[in-house]
Specification:
The chain has about 210 residues and is an all-alpha fold. The protein is built from 9 helices and no strands. It folds into 2 domains: about 1-55, Homeodomain-like (Arc Repressor Mutant, subunit A, Orthogonal Bundle), CATH 1.10.10.60; about 55-205, Orthogonal Bundle (Tetracycline Repressor, domain 2), CATH 1.10.357.
């Protein structure tokens, strides 16, 4: 292995260490209370080294959101490629949404806050591009299934992007709403049951009478 390859591998390893440390600190302290210094300590690096990889806390937190968005997109595409009817694919999307929520609810919540918040203005162009590309990939797959249902005369003849937005917006809205309720009663988490009910309603709404 040459010098360049070793340096590249070391850089990738440090980045993974930072990401893992950030996930731990953010999970324990939350985004607002966590500091770059605490993350650096957890990663056993100097704060200055952290800023060589991420320009600020927002960008580091966004990196975690992009990771979960990639995971979500991959799972959605697996459903799209299955040899099943479009109605079943929509049902499987529900299962994917629940699975991704279980995978890391805190980061998923941050992703939905991120997509509608001011944090976007603090991101580098490269980070914004990653966010856009992975969002488009996940959203595009949902649009593809909805359009298939419309073309086959199974779903109502509305714009597929608008219908896909309803599915995506419902997911984000339910996750954020239930999270706000959980802050009042942290012993309850109704995301799974609420998403199951929401998909029953949406599937009925998608179908032609």
């Amino acid at each position: 292995m040459g010098i360049h390859e070793r340096k590249l591998r070391e850089k990738q390893r440090r980045r993974r260490d930072i990401i893992n440390a950030a996930r731990k600190i953010f999970s324990v302290k939350g985004f607002n209370s966590a500091t770059m210094e605490e993350i650096a300590t957890e990663a056993e690096l100097s704060p200055g080294t952290l800023y060589l990889y991420f320009k600020n806390k927002e960008e580091l937190h966004t990196s975690l959101s992009i990771d979960i968005l990639k995971y979500l997109s991959t799972q959605i595409h697996k459903v799209v490629n299955q040899d099943i009817c479009v109605e079943e694919k929509i049902v499987r999307f529900r299962d994917v949404f629940i699975d991704v929520y279980d995978y890391d609810p805190n980061i998923l919540i941050n992703l939905f806050h991120l997509q509608s918040g001011e944090t976007l203005h603090n991101l580098s162009e490269e980070m914004m591009q990653h966010l856009k590309e992975n969002s488009a990939r996940a959203h595009g797959a949902i649009i593809q299934v909805v359009k298939e249902g419309i073309d086959k005369g199974i779903f109502i003849d509305e714009h597929p992007v608008a219908l896909a937005d309803v599915l995506w917006g419902s997911y984000a809205g339910i996750v954020l709403w239930v999270d706000s309720k959980r802050k009042l009663d942290d012993h309850k988490d109704f995301v799974r049951t609420t998403l199951t009910t929401a998909f029953k309603v949406m599937i009925q709404g998608l179908k032609k009478n």
